[in-house]
Design a protein that fits this description.
This protein is α/β, with parallel strands linked by helices. Helices cover 44% and strands 15% of the residues.
């Protein structure tokens, strides 16, 4: 089912498929769209520690007891790739618990679709459990570099969603040029595996290069590569501007309240069109950023001195 926006889509899917009798169990590091969708739920909800299957089972025990009392069902929500950390969701672990507990699984794989799996079908394919996912969601904003999203699942569930998703019923659909563009991008994903192969090469090169230069990064095997620094909002702004204006690199910066106070996160997301030369240039720039930050160069009063020509 084609969706007009990813954020709205997630919220509206959650709103559509649960009622006050149902119980939601979700990963503690879920995306904001999932959190917002869960907040709208009028029934009970339980959160489990990130990728912690022991914690999930404890919450499933509570959810099962409650669902038996209300006559409702259980919806488990997690992600394929967690965009802020680059961690893959433990889909195998979650699905293994289906043997013991009765629940439906909703997976947001925004960063995994198009980049993970033998054919780019995502983390479910990568881990060999795609057919055990009840509702599979992804946005077109990541691997397709566009706008829009989709949700896949059983035909009966999708038919139900077509008649209940408020974000689709009461909002404009995707403009046709974007739909045609998405079809062309899907064709590239399906017919050009060499793009994913190059992405993997670039992804590994940037991660290994950062480690070699002393940066502490998560040991992940997905494109999102967060690099952490210590500093405040002013320093983050100056670093971001320096990176863009003087090194020619655009990189999204994440600050409080998304990350704790005193933490600056630059999220590097390599693409299939990058080269090893781009990787080396990026590594050189990040080493320079770290040296400048350590020397106090990015203190707020230094703002104007960072930009060229000022």
């Amino acid at each position: 089912m084609l969706l007009n926006f990813g954020y709205q889509g997630v919220i509206s899917i959650i709103d559509s498929i649960v009622n006050r009798k149902d119980v939601i169990v979700y990963d503690g590091e879920s995306h904001a769209s999932i959190i917002d969708g869960v907040r709208l739920h009028m029934g009970k909800r339980f959160v489990y520690a990130h990728n912690d299957m022991e914690s999930l089972e404890k919450q499933l025990e509570r959810a099962t007891k409650l669902a038996n009392e209300t006559g409702g069902g259980i919806l488990v929500i997690t992600e394929g790739v967690f965009g802020m950390s680059g961690n893959m969701g433990d889909l195998k672990g979650v699905i293994a618990l289906k043997q013991k507990y009765n629940f439906r699984l909703f997976v947001d794989d925004a960063h995994g679709f198009g980049t993970m799996g033998a054919t780019g079908a995502g983390v479910g394919e990568e881990l060999g459990v795609q057919d055990q996912i009840d509702l599979y969601f992804s946005t077109f904003a990541k691997s397709m570099a566009s706008i829009g999203a989709f949700v896949a699942g059983d035909k009966m569930i999708l038919k139900f969603l077509r008649y209940t998703m408020r974000s689709q019923i009461y909002a404009k659909s995707l403009p046709m040029p974007l739909v045609i563009g998405a079809q062309k991008r899907l064709e590239l994903i399906r017919k050009h595996p060499e793009l994913r192969a190059n992405l993997k090469k670039i992804m590994n090169a940037i991660k290994e290069g950062l480690k070699a230069r002393g940066f502490a990064i998560n040991d992940t095997h997905t494109p999102p590569t967060p690099v952490l620094f210590e500093g405040g909002v002013g320093e983050a702004a100056n670093m971001s501007m320096d990176l863009r204006e003087n090194y020619g690199i655009f990189c999204s910066v994440v600050i409080y309240p998304v990350v704790p106070k005193g933490v600056i996160m630059f999220r590097i997301i390599p693409t299939a069109s990058h080269t090893l030369s781009d990787v080396e240039e990026t590594l050189t720039a990040f080493s320079a950023l770290k040296s400048k930050l350590d020397s106090g160069f990015y203190k707020e009063e230094q703002l104007v001195s960072v930009t060229k020509g000022i």
